[in-house]
Amino acid sequence: MPLTGKIAGLILIIISVLAVFSSVLSPYDPERIDLDSIKEPPGIKHPFGTDNKGRDIFSRVLYGGKISVSIAVIAAFISMSLGLLIGLCSGYFGGKIDTAIMAVVDLILAFPSLLLAIGVSIIFPPGIYTVMIAIAFVGWASFARLIRGYVLTLKEASYIEAAKAIGCSKLRILFVHLMPQCLPIGLVMAGIKLGGYVLTEASLSFLGLGAQPPTATWGSMVSLNRAYIASEPWMVLFPGIAIAVASLCFNVLGDALRDKYGLKI
Amino acid sequence: MLGVTLLTFSLTKALPGDPVQSLVGERAQPEVIEKIRKELGADKDVLSQYAGYVKLLLKGELGRSYYTNRKVFDDILVKFPNTMKLAFAAMIIAVPIGILLGFIAAYKKNTPVDRIISALSITGLSLPVFWSGLLIMLLLSLKLRFFPPSGTGDIRFLVMPAITLSLPAIASLARITRTSVIEVADMPFINTARAKGLSIFKINATHIFRNVLIPLVTVIGLDIASYLNGAVLTETIFGWDGIGRFTMDGIIKRDYPVIMGCIIVGTVVFVLINLLVDILYHYLDPRVRLYASDR
Fold it and tell me: Exposed site from A27, A48, B25, B202, fewest CB < 10 Å?
Protein backbone atom coordinates (compact mmCIF):
# COMPACT_ATOMS: atom_id res chain seq x y z
CA MET A 1 0.00 0.00 0.00
CA PRO A 2 1.35 3.46 -0.83
CA LEU A 3 2.45 5.80 1.91
CA THR A 4 -0.55 8.09 1.46
CA GLY A 5 -2.90 5.19 2.05
CA LYS A 6 -1.07 4.30 5.25
CA ILE A 7 -1.18 7.90 6.48
CA ALA A 8 -4.90 8.10 5.69
CA GLY A 9 -5.47 4.86 7.58
CA LEU A 10 -3.52 6.21 10.54
CA ILE A 11 -5.55 9.45 10.61
CA LEU A 12 -8.74 7.42 10.42
CA ILE A 13 -7.62 5.34 13.39
CA ILE A 14 -6.93 8.57 15.29
CA ILE A 15 -10.37 9.93 14.32
CA SER A 16 -12.03 6.70 15.47
CA VAL A 17 -10.17 6.75 18.78
CA LEU A 18 -11.14 10.40 19.29
CA ALA A 19 -14.75 9.56 18.45
CA VAL A 20 -14.93 6.50 20.69
CA PHE A 21 -13.40 8.30 23.65
CA SER A 22 -15.13 11.61 22.94
CA SER A 23 -16.81 11.58 26.34
CA VAL A 24 -13.44 11.33 28.09
CA LEU A 25 -11.44 13.56 25.78
CA SER A 26 -13.76 16.49 25.26
CA PRO A 27 -13.07 19.25 27.74
CA TYR A 28 -16.69 20.40 27.98
CA ASP A 29 -20.19 18.99 27.78
CA PRO A 30 -21.07 19.46 24.08
CA GLU A 31 -24.65 20.44 24.82
CA ARG A 32 -24.08 22.66 27.85
CA ILE A 33 -25.09 26.22 27.17
CA ASP A 34 -22.71 28.72 28.72
CA LEU A 35 -23.94 32.24 28.23
CA ASP A 36 -20.79 33.73 29.77
CA SER A 37 -18.59 32.57 26.92
CA ILE A 38 -20.63 33.23 23.79
CA LYS A 39 -18.86 33.38 20.41
CA GLU A 40 -15.34 33.18 21.84
CA PRO A 41 -12.63 32.90 19.20
CA PRO A 42 -10.30 29.87 19.30
CA GLY A 43 -7.89 30.13 22.23
CA ILE A 44 -6.37 28.17 25.08
CA LYS A 45 -9.65 27.72 26.91
CA HIS A 46 -11.61 26.69 23.82
CA PRO A 47 -9.25 25.33 21.11
CA PHE A 48 -11.90 25.69 18.36
CA GLY A 49 -13.79 28.60 19.97
CA THR A 50 -17.42 28.58 21.09
CA ASP A 51 -20.70 29.00 19.24
CA ASN A 52 -23.59 31.41 19.66
CA LYS A 53 -24.77 29.58 22.78
CA GLY A 54 -21.35 29.35 24.37
CA ARG A 55 -20.96 25.66 23.59
CA ASP A 56 -17.41 24.43 23.09
CA ILE A 57 -16.92 23.69 19.40
CA PHE A 58 -14.02 21.29 19.96
CA SER A 59 -16.22 19.09 22.17
CA ARG A 60 -19.06 19.31 19.68
CA VAL A 61 -16.80 18.33 16.81
CA LEU A 62 -15.61 15.28 18.80
CA TYR A 63 -19.14 14.19 19.68
CA GLY A 64 -20.39 14.98 16.20
CA GLY A 65 -17.58 12.86 14.77
CA LYS A 66 -18.82 9.91 16.76
CA ILE A 67 -22.26 10.24 15.17
CA SER A 68 -21.20 11.21 11.66
CA VAL A 69 -18.48 8.58 11.22
CA SER A 70 -20.50 5.77 12.78
CA ILE A 71 -23.51 6.56 10.59
CA ALA A 72 -21.31 6.40 7.50
CA VAL A 73 -19.65 3.14 8.61
CA ILE A 74 -22.91 1.44 9.60
CA ALA A 75 -24.63 2.60 6.40
CA ALA A 76 -21.70 1.21 4.39
CA PHE A 77 -21.98 -2.08 6.26
CA ILE A 78 -25.73 -2.33 5.61
CA SER A 79 -25.28 -1.41 1.94
CA MET A 80 -22.53 -3.98 1.56
CA SER A 81 -24.45 -6.79 3.25
CA LEU A 82 -27.62 -6.10 1.28
CA GLY A 83 -25.72 -5.64 -1.96
CA LEU A 84 -23.73 -8.81 -1.38
CA LEU A 85 -26.80 -10.89 -0.67
CA ILE A 86 -28.86 -9.49 -3.53
CA GLY A 87 -25.97 -9.49 -5.97
CA LEU A 88 -25.18 -13.13 -5.15
CA CYS A 89 -28.77 -14.21 -5.72
CA SER A 90 -29.10 -12.17 -8.88
CA GLY A 91 -25.90 -13.48 -10.41
CA TYR A 92 -26.31 -17.08 -9.35
CA PHE A 93 -29.97 -17.71 -10.09
CA GLY A 94 -30.09 -15.63 -13.26
CA GLY A 95 -33.23 -15.66 -15.37
CA LYS A 96 -36.28 -13.73 -14.21
CA ILE A 97 -34.92 -13.09 -10.71
CA ASP A 98 -31.84 -11.52 -12.24
CA THR A 99 -33.86 -9.40 -14.65
CA ALA A 100 -36.15 -8.17 -11.87
CA ILE A 101 -33.33 -7.34 -9.47
CA MET A 102 -31.31 -5.58 -12.12
CA ALA A 103 -34.34 -3.51 -13.09
CA VAL A 104 -34.60 -2.30 -9.50
CA VAL A 105 -30.85 -1.62 -9.40
CA ASP A 106 -31.02 0.37 -12.64
CA LEU A 107 -34.00 2.28 -11.29
CA ILE A 108 -32.16 3.30 -8.14
CA LEU A 109 -29.01 4.22 -10.03
CA ALA A 110 -31.08 6.33 -12.42
CA PHE A 111 -31.78 8.81 -9.63
CA PRO A 112 -29.30 11.48 -8.64
CA SER A 113 -28.25 9.89 -5.35
CA LEU A 114 -28.82 12.79 -2.97
CA LEU A 115 -32.30 13.49 -4.38
CA LEU A 116 -33.35 9.89 -3.76
CA ALA A 117 -31.80 9.93 -0.30
CA ILE A 118 -33.82 13.07 0.46
CA GLY A 119 -36.95 11.37 -0.83
CA VAL A 120 -36.36 8.37 1.41
CA SER A 121 -35.41 10.29 4.51
CA ILE A 122 -38.51 12.53 4.52
CA ILE A 123 -40.63 9.41 5.07
CA PHE A 124 -39.24 8.93 8.55
CA PRO A 125 -38.92 11.43 11.36
CA PRO A 126 -35.49 13.06 11.15
CA GLY A 127 -32.77 11.29 13.11
CA ILE A 128 -29.63 9.21 12.81
CA TYR A 129 -31.46 6.00 11.83
CA THR A 130 -33.26 7.82 9.06
CA VAL A 131 -29.95 8.91 7.58
CA MET A 132 -28.59 5.36 7.77
CA ILE A 133 -31.67 3.96 6.05
CA ALA A 134 -31.57 6.63 3.36
CA ILE A 135 -27.89 6.06 2.57
CA ALA A 136 -28.27 2.28 2.58
CA PHE A 137 -31.42 2.44 0.43
CA VAL A 138 -29.47 4.24 -2.27
CA GLY A 139 -26.14 2.51 -1.60
CA TRP A 140 -26.86 -1.21 -1.93
CA ALA A 141 -27.55 -0.95 -5.66
CA SER A 142 -23.98 -0.33 -6.75
CA PHE A 143 -22.73 -3.14 -4.50
CA ALA A 144 -25.32 -5.53 -5.94
CA ARG A 145 -24.32 -4.68 -9.49
CA LEU A 146 -20.62 -5.19 -8.82
CA ILE A 147 -21.11 -8.48 -6.95
CA ARG A 148 -23.49 -9.78 -9.61
CA GLY A 149 -20.94 -9.16 -12.33
CA TYR A 150 -18.31 -10.97 -10.32
CA VAL A 151 -20.59 -13.92 -9.57
CA LEU A 152 -21.33 -14.28 -13.29
CA THR A 153 -17.62 -14.86 -13.96
CA LEU A 154 -17.19 -17.09 -10.89
CA LYS A 155 -20.18 -19.26 -11.76
CA GLU A 156 -18.32 -20.86 -14.64
CA ALA A 157 -15.26 -21.68 -12.53
CA SER A 158 -14.39 -25.37 -12.29
CA TYR A 159 -14.54 -25.49 -8.52
CA ILE A 160 -18.19 -24.48 -8.59
CA GLU A 161 -18.81 -27.19 -11.12
CA ALA A 162 -17.02 -29.62 -8.83
CA ALA A 163 -19.17 -28.51 -5.91
CA LYS A 164 -22.25 -29.09 -8.01
CA ALA A 165 -20.97 -32.52 -9.07
CA ILE A 166 -20.53 -33.74 -5.50
CA GLY A 167 -24.08 -32.65 -4.80
CA CYS A 168 -23.78 -29.40 -2.88
CA SER A 169 -27.09 -27.66 -2.43
CA LYS A 170 -27.67 -24.32 -4.11
CA LEU A 171 -27.61 -22.57 -0.76
CA ARG A 172 -24.32 -24.20 0.14
CA ILE A 173 -22.75 -23.15 -3.15
CA LEU A 174 -24.06 -19.62 -2.65
CA PHE A 175 -22.92 -19.07 0.89
CA VAL A 176 -19.99 -21.43 1.36
CA HIS A 177 -18.38 -21.32 -2.06
CA LEU A 178 -19.35 -18.03 -3.67
CA MET A 179 -19.79 -15.60 -0.80
CA PRO A 180 -16.25 -15.82 0.62
CA GLN A 181 -14.95 -15.01 -2.87
CA CYS A 182 -17.11 -11.93 -3.14
CA LEU A 183 -16.57 -10.59 0.35
CA PRO A 184 -13.14 -8.99 -0.26
CA ILE A 185 -14.51 -7.09 -3.28
CA GLY A 186 -17.45 -5.94 -1.24
CA LEU A 187 -15.14 -4.71 1.48
CA VAL A 188 -12.92 -2.80 -0.96
CA MET A 189 -16.00 -1.25 -2.53
CA ALA A 190 -17.20 -0.26 0.95
CA GLY A 191 -13.83 1.42 1.53
CA ILE A 192 -14.21 3.33 -1.72
CA LYS A 193 -17.78 4.36 -0.94
CA LEU A 194 -17.21 5.47 2.65
CA GLY A 195 -15.83 8.89 1.73
CA GLY A 196 -18.98 9.59 -0.25
CA TYR A 197 -21.19 8.33 2.57
CA VAL A 198 -19.53 10.74 5.00
CA LEU A 199 -20.43 13.54 2.57
CA THR A 200 -24.00 12.29 2.10
CA GLU A 201 -24.50 12.05 5.85
CA ALA A 202 -23.18 15.59 6.24
CA SER A 203 -25.42 16.84 3.42
CA LEU A 204 -28.57 15.26 4.88
CA SER A 205 -27.71 16.68 8.31
CA PHE A 206 -27.09 20.04 6.68
CA LEU A 207 -30.58 19.88 5.16
CA GLY A 208 -32.02 19.20 8.62
CA LEU A 209 -32.93 15.58 7.91
CA GLY A 210 -30.35 14.08 10.29
CA ALA A 211 -29.90 14.13 14.05
CA GLN A 212 -31.88 16.97 15.57
CA PRO A 213 -30.57 19.78 17.79
CA PRO A 214 -29.13 19.99 20.37
CA THR A 215 -27.27 16.85 19.23
CA ALA A 216 -24.25 17.88 17.20
CA THR A 217 -23.29 16.37 13.87
CA TRP A 218 -20.74 17.92 11.57
CA GLY A 219 -23.28 18.73 8.88
CA SER A 220 -25.83 20.29 11.22
CA MET A 221 -23.13 22.40 12.89
CA VAL A 222 -22.24 23.96 9.54
CA SER A 223 -25.93 24.43 8.80
CA LEU A 224 -26.88 26.02 12.12
CA ASN A 225 -23.84 28.26 12.35
CA ARG A 226 -23.72 29.47 8.77
CA ALA A 227 -25.43 32.73 9.65
CA TYR A 228 -22.28 33.65 11.59
CA ILE A 229 -19.85 32.94 8.75
CA ALA A 230 -18.92 36.60 8.35
CA SER A 231 -18.32 37.53 11.97
CA GLU A 232 -17.37 34.23 13.65
CA PRO A 233 -16.03 32.01 10.85
CA TRP A 234 -14.52 29.43 13.24
CA MET A 235 -18.03 28.16 14.02
CA VAL A 236 -18.34 26.90 10.45
CA LEU A 237 -14.67 26.32 9.70
CA PHE A 238 -13.86 23.51 12.14
CA PRO A 239 -16.84 21.19 11.59
CA GLY A 240 -16.29 21.58 7.84
CA ILE A 241 -12.61 20.72 8.16
CA ALA A 242 -13.62 17.63 10.13
CA ILE A 243 -15.97 16.50 7.33
CA ALA A 244 -13.34 17.18 4.67
CA VAL A 245 -10.54 15.39 6.54
CA ALA A 246 -12.64 12.30 7.31
CA SER A 247 -13.98 12.08 3.78
CA LEU A 248 -10.53 12.70 2.27
CA CYS A 249 -8.93 9.96 4.37
CA PHE A 250 -11.63 7.46 3.43
CA ASN A 251 -11.23 8.37 -0.23
CA VAL A 252 -7.42 8.04 -0.15
CA LEU A 253 -7.67 4.74 1.69
CA GLY A 254 -10.35 3.53 -0.73
CA ASP A 255 -8.12 4.42 -3.70
CA ALA A 256 -5.17 2.64 -2.15
CA LEU A 257 -7.28 -0.48 -1.56
CA ARG A 258 -8.61 -0.37 -5.10
CA ASP A 259 -5.13 -0.11 -6.60
CA LYS A 260 -3.88 -2.90 -4.39
CA TYR A 261 -6.61 -5.30 -5.47
CA GLY A 262 -6.62 -4.06 -9.06
CA LEU A 263 -10.32 -3.32 -9.05
CA LYS A 264 -11.85 -1.18 -11.76
CA ILE A 265 -14.82 0.64 -10.34
CA MET B 1 -39.51 6.32 -16.53
CA LEU B 2 -42.63 4.66 -15.20
CA GLY B 3 -40.46 3.08 -12.53
CA VAL B 4 -39.23 6.51 -11.49
CA THR B 5 -42.77 7.77 -11.01
CA LEU B 6 -43.80 4.58 -9.20
CA LEU B 7 -40.89 4.81 -6.79
CA THR B 8 -41.41 8.49 -6.01
CA PHE B 9 -45.13 7.94 -5.66
CA SER B 10 -44.66 5.11 -3.17
CA LEU B 11 -42.13 7.22 -1.30
CA THR B 12 -44.60 10.04 -0.88
CA LYS B 13 -47.40 7.63 0.05
CA ALA B 14 -45.19 6.34 2.84
CA LEU B 15 -44.77 9.86 4.20
CA PRO B 16 -45.96 10.35 7.76
CA GLY B 17 -48.40 12.98 8.86
CA ASP B 18 -51.57 14.06 7.14
CA PRO B 19 -50.89 16.80 4.62
CA VAL B 20 -54.53 17.86 4.74
CA GLN B 21 -54.33 18.27 8.49
CA SER B 22 -51.20 20.38 8.32
CA LEU B 23 -52.72 22.40 5.51
CA VAL B 24 -55.87 23.51 7.31
CA GLY B 25 -54.42 23.63 10.79
CA GLU B 26 -55.49 22.04 14.06
CA ARG B 27 -58.83 23.73 14.52
CA ALA B 28 -60.48 23.25 11.15
CA GLN B 29 -64.02 21.88 10.88
CA PRO B 30 -64.23 18.19 9.98
CA GLU B 31 -66.43 19.09 6.98
CA VAL B 32 -63.77 21.42 5.65
CA ILE B 33 -61.15 18.72 5.97
CA GLU B 34 -63.39 16.28 4.15
CA LYS B 35 -63.98 18.78 1.35
CA ILE B 36 -60.30 19.46 0.83
CA ARG B 37 -59.59 15.76 0.96
CA LYS B 38 -62.03 15.26 -1.91
CA GLU B 39 -60.45 18.09 -3.87
CA LEU B 40 -57.00 16.60 -3.47
CA GLY B 41 -58.30 13.14 -4.23
CA ALA B 42 -56.95 11.80 -0.97
CA ASP B 43 -60.16 9.88 -0.24
CA LYS B 44 -59.68 7.39 -3.06
CA ASP B 45 -57.68 4.20 -2.75
CA VAL B 46 -53.96 4.15 -3.44
CA LEU B 47 -54.13 2.49 -6.85
CA SER B 48 -56.54 4.97 -8.36
CA GLN B 49 -54.50 7.75 -6.77
CA TYR B 50 -51.44 6.43 -8.57
CA ALA B 51 -53.38 6.10 -11.81
CA GLY B 52 -54.58 9.67 -11.42
CA TYR B 53 -51.03 10.78 -10.70
CA VAL B 54 -49.63 9.14 -13.82
CA LYS B 55 -52.49 10.60 -15.85
CA LEU B 56 -51.58 14.03 -14.55
CA LEU B 57 -47.91 13.42 -15.37
CA LEU B 58 -48.80 12.45 -18.91
CA LYS B 59 -50.61 15.75 -19.22
CA GLY B 60 -47.42 17.42 -18.02
CA GLU B 61 -48.68 18.23 -14.57
CA LEU B 62 -47.20 17.41 -11.20
CA GLY B 63 -50.11 18.34 -8.98
CA ARG B 64 -50.51 21.46 -6.94
CA SER B 65 -48.47 22.68 -4.00
CA TYR B 66 -50.28 22.13 -0.72
CA TYR B 67 -49.32 25.63 0.38
CA THR B 68 -49.51 27.99 -2.54
CA ASN B 69 -52.06 25.90 -4.49
CA ARG B 70 -50.04 26.75 -7.59
CA LYS B 71 -49.27 24.05 -10.10
CA VAL B 72 -45.92 22.52 -9.16
CA PHE B 73 -45.05 22.05 -12.80
CA ASP B 74 -45.51 25.76 -13.54
CA ASP B 75 -43.24 26.69 -10.64
CA ILE B 76 -40.65 24.19 -11.78
CA LEU B 77 -40.85 25.60 -15.31
CA VAL B 78 -39.98 29.01 -13.90
CA LYS B 79 -37.21 27.75 -11.64
CA PHE B 80 -35.70 25.05 -13.77
CA PRO B 81 -33.99 27.39 -16.25
CA ASN B 82 -32.19 28.95 -13.29
CA THR B 83 -30.85 25.57 -12.20
CA MET B 84 -29.88 24.80 -15.79
CA LYS B 85 -28.09 28.13 -16.02
CA LEU B 86 -26.19 27.27 -12.87
CA ALA B 87 -25.33 23.74 -14.02
CA PHE B 88 -24.25 25.05 -17.42
CA ALA B 89 -22.05 27.73 -15.86
CA ALA B 90 -20.49 25.11 -13.58
CA MET B 91 -19.86 22.92 -16.61
CA ILE B 92 -18.20 25.76 -18.51
CA ILE B 93 -15.81 26.17 -15.61
CA ALA B 94 -15.31 22.47 -14.90
CA VAL B 95 -14.83 20.88 -18.33
CA PRO B 96 -11.81 22.83 -19.66
CA ILE B 97 -10.06 23.06 -16.30
CA GLY B 98 -10.67 19.42 -15.46
CA ILE B 99 -9.47 18.15 -18.85
CA LEU B 100 -6.43 20.43 -18.85
CA LEU B 101 -5.39 19.34 -15.35
CA GLY B 102 -5.88 15.71 -16.32
CA PHE B 103 -3.67 16.05 -19.42
CA ILE B 104 -0.96 17.84 -17.45
CA ALA B 105 -1.04 15.18 -14.74
CA ALA B 106 -0.83 12.39 -17.32
CA TYR B 107 2.19 13.93 -19.07
CA LYS B 108 3.99 14.65 -15.84
CA LYS B 109 3.16 11.15 -14.63
CA ASN B 110 4.76 10.30 -11.28
CA THR B 111 6.36 13.73 -10.88
CA PRO B 112 5.58 16.23 -8.12
CA VAL B 113 3.23 18.07 -10.51
CA ASP B 114 1.19 14.91 -11.01
CA ARG B 115 1.09 14.27 -7.30
CA ILE B 116 -0.08 17.79 -6.54
CA ILE B 117 -2.86 17.58 -9.14
CA SER B 118 -3.91 14.14 -7.91
CA ALA B 119 -3.94 15.36 -4.31
CA LEU B 120 -5.99 18.41 -5.30
CA SER B 121 -8.49 16.34 -7.22
CA ILE B 122 -9.07 13.84 -4.44
CA THR B 123 -9.48 16.79 -2.06
CA GLY B 124 -12.00 18.31 -4.44
CA LEU B 125 -14.03 15.11 -4.28
CA SER B 126 -13.92 15.12 -0.49
CA LEU B 127 -15.02 18.69 0.21
CA PRO B 128 -18.66 19.07 1.20
CA VAL B 129 -20.08 21.57 -1.32
CA PHE B 130 -22.18 23.34 1.29
CA TRP B 131 -19.00 24.06 3.24
CA SER B 132 -16.72 25.00 0.35
CA GLY B 133 -19.56 27.22 -0.87
CA LEU B 134 -19.64 29.03 2.45
CA LEU B 135 -15.86 29.50 2.37
CA ILE B 136 -16.02 30.88 -1.17
CA MET B 137 -18.77 33.21 -0.05
CA LEU B 138 -16.69 34.32 2.94
CA LEU B 139 -13.64 34.99 0.80
CA LEU B 140 -15.00 36.44 -2.44
CA SER B 141 -18.06 38.20 -1.16
CA LEU B 142 -17.77 39.10 2.50
CA LYS B 143 -14.01 39.79 2.62
CA LEU B 144 -13.08 40.88 -0.90
CA ARG B 145 -16.55 42.17 -1.82
CA PHE B 146 -16.30 41.01 -5.44
CA PHE B 147 -19.78 39.55 -5.63
CA PRO B 148 -23.11 39.94 -3.81
CA PRO B 149 -23.37 37.13 -1.21
CA SER B 150 -26.72 35.72 -2.28
CA GLY B 151 -29.69 36.15 -4.55
CA THR B 152 -30.81 35.37 -8.08
CA GLY B 153 -30.00 37.56 -11.01
CA ASP B 154 -27.29 38.36 -13.50
CA ILE B 155 -23.84 36.87 -13.83
CA ARG B 156 -22.53 38.46 -10.63
CA PHE B 157 -24.85 36.25 -8.62
CA LEU B 158 -23.97 33.23 -10.71
CA VAL B 159 -20.19 33.14 -10.30
CA MET B 160 -19.87 31.86 -6.74
CA PRO B 161 -22.43 29.03 -6.84
CA ALA B 162 -21.04 27.97 -10.22
CA ILE B 163 -17.49 27.79 -8.84
CA THR B 164 -18.76 25.81 -5.85
CA LEU B 165 -20.61 23.32 -8.02
CA SER B 166 -17.69 22.96 -10.41
CA LEU B 167 -15.16 21.87 -7.76
CA PRO B 168 -16.17 18.19 -7.48
CA ALA B 169 -16.74 18.03 -11.23
CA ILE B 170 -13.25 19.40 -11.95
CA ALA B 171 -11.84 16.79 -9.61
CA SER B 172 -13.62 13.84 -11.19
CA LEU B 173 -12.86 15.05 -14.73
CA ALA B 174 -9.16 15.51 -13.94
CA ARG B 175 -8.95 12.02 -12.49
CA ILE B 176 -10.69 10.29 -15.36
CA THR B 177 -8.73 12.29 -17.99
CA ARG B 178 -5.45 11.35 -16.36
CA THR B 179 -6.18 7.61 -16.30
CA SER B 180 -7.58 7.57 -19.84
CA VAL B 181 -4.71 9.58 -21.32
CA ILE B 182 -2.16 7.30 -19.67
CA GLU B 183 -4.03 4.27 -20.98
CA VAL B 184 -4.34 5.57 -24.54
CA ALA B 185 -0.77 6.87 -24.69
CA ASP B 186 0.52 3.36 -24.06
CA MET B 187 -1.29 1.94 -27.06
CA PRO B 188 0.68 0.83 -30.14
CA PHE B 189 -1.02 3.25 -32.53
CA ILE B 190 0.38 6.19 -30.58
CA ASN B 191 3.85 4.74 -31.05
CA THR B 192 3.14 4.45 -34.75
CA ALA B 193 2.05 8.05 -34.87
CA ARG B 194 5.22 9.07 -33.10
CA ALA B 195 7.31 6.94 -35.43
CA LYS B 196 5.67 8.62 -38.41
CA GLY B 197 7.12 11.84 -37.03
CA LEU B 198 3.91 13.61 -36.04
CA SER B 199 4.38 16.49 -33.66
CA ILE B 200 3.50 15.95 -30.02
CA PHE B 201 0.74 18.51 -30.36
CA LYS B 202 -0.80 16.76 -33.31
CA ILE B 203 -0.66 13.40 -31.57
CA ASN B 204 -2.42 14.87 -28.58
CA ALA B 205 -4.98 16.87 -30.45
CA THR B 206 -6.08 14.17 -32.85
CA HIS B 207 -5.09 10.70 -31.72
CA ILE B 208 -5.22 10.87 -27.96
CA PHE B 209 -7.98 13.39 -27.48
CA ARG B 210 -10.45 11.53 -29.67
CA ASN B 211 -9.95 8.33 -27.75
CA VAL B 212 -10.16 10.03 -24.41
CA LEU B 213 -13.41 11.73 -25.38
CA ILE B 214 -15.60 8.71 -24.74
CA PRO B 215 -14.90 8.21 -21.05
CA LEU B 216 -14.96 11.99 -20.70
CA VAL B 217 -18.40 12.36 -22.22
CA THR B 218 -19.64 9.63 -19.88
CA VAL B 219 -18.28 11.46 -16.89
CA ILE B 220 -19.65 14.80 -18.04
CA GLY B 221 -23.06 13.14 -18.41
CA LEU B 222 -22.84 11.54 -14.99
CA ASP B 223 -21.70 14.84 -13.51
CA ILE B 224 -25.15 16.21 -14.26
CA ALA B 225 -26.24 14.11 -11.28
CA SER B 226 -23.66 15.78 -9.10
CA TYR B 227 -24.84 19.20 -10.31
CA LEU B 228 -28.42 18.29 -9.42
CA ASN B 229 -27.37 16.86 -6.05
CA GLY B 230 -25.17 19.84 -5.36
CA ALA B 231 -27.83 22.27 -6.55
CA VAL B 232 -30.00 21.45 -3.52
CA LEU B 233 -27.14 22.49 -1.24
CA THR B 234 -25.55 25.36 -3.16
CA GLU B 235 -28.82 26.99 -4.16
CA THR B 236 -29.85 26.94 -0.51
CA ILE B 237 -26.63 28.64 0.54
CA PHE B 238 -26.53 31.23 -2.21
CA GLY B 239 -30.25 31.88 -2.35
CA TRP B 240 -30.34 30.96 -6.04
CA ASP B 241 -33.95 30.52 -7.08
CA GLY B 242 -33.75 27.13 -8.80
CA ILE B 243 -35.33 23.75 -8.21
CA GLY B 244 -32.68 22.90 -5.61
CA ARG B 245 -33.89 25.60 -3.28
CA PHE B 246 -37.48 24.77 -4.24
CA THR B 247 -36.81 21.20 -3.05
CA MET B 248 -35.35 22.50 0.20
CA ASP B 249 -38.38 24.74 0.81
CA GLY B 250 -40.58 21.74 0.11
CA ILE B 251 -38.68 19.67 2.66
CA ILE B 252 -39.09 22.31 5.34
CA LYS B 253 -42.82 22.70 4.71
CA ARG B 254 -43.43 18.98 4.04
CA ASP B 255 -44.98 20.07 0.75
CA TYR B 256 -44.97 16.62 -0.84
CA PRO B 257 -46.06 17.45 -4.40
CA VAL B 258 -43.21 19.96 -4.57
CA ILE B 259 -40.57 17.51 -3.34
CA MET B 260 -41.96 14.75 -5.53
CA GLY B 261 -42.12 17.00 -8.56
CA CYS B 262 -38.55 18.22 -8.12
CA ILE B 263 -37.20 14.69 -7.69
CA ILE B 264 -39.08 13.49 -10.77
CA VAL B 265 -38.02 16.39 -12.95
CA GLY B 266 -34.42 16.14 -11.75
CA THR B 267 -34.30 12.43 -12.43
CA VAL B 268 -36.01 12.63 -15.79
CA VAL B 269 -33.54 15.30 -16.92
CA PHE B 270 -30.66 13.16 -15.70
CA VAL B 271 -31.97 10.10 -17.54
CA LEU B 272 -32.59 12.09 -20.74
CA ILE B 273 -29.11 13.60 -20.69
CA ASN B 274 -27.54 10.19 -20.29
CA LEU B 275 -29.64 8.89 -23.14
CA LEU B 276 -28.28 11.77 -25.19
CA VAL B 277 -24.76 10.79 -24.14
CA ASP B 278 -25.36 7.24 -25.34
CA ILE B 279 -26.51 8.56 -28.70
CA LEU B 280 -23.51 10.85 -28.83
CA TYR B 281 -21.19 7.84 -28.44
CA HIS B 282 -22.25 6.65 -31.81
CA TYR B 283 -20.90 9.78 -33.42
CA LEU B 284 -17.76 9.93 -31.34
CA ASP B 285 -16.88 6.30 -31.76
CA PRO B 286 -18.20 4.43 -34.79
CA ARG B 287 -17.30 1.18 -33.03
CA VAL B 288 -20.22 1.74 -30.69
CA ARG B 289 -23.51 0.70 -32.25
CA LEU B 290 -26.82 2.00 -31.07
CA TYR B 291 -28.68 -1.25 -31.57
CA ALA B 292 -27.61 -4.59 -30.27
CA SER B 293 -28.54 -6.22 -33.58
CA ASP B 294 -25.75 -4.33 -35.34
CA ARG B 295 -23.10 -6.22 -33.44
Answer: B25
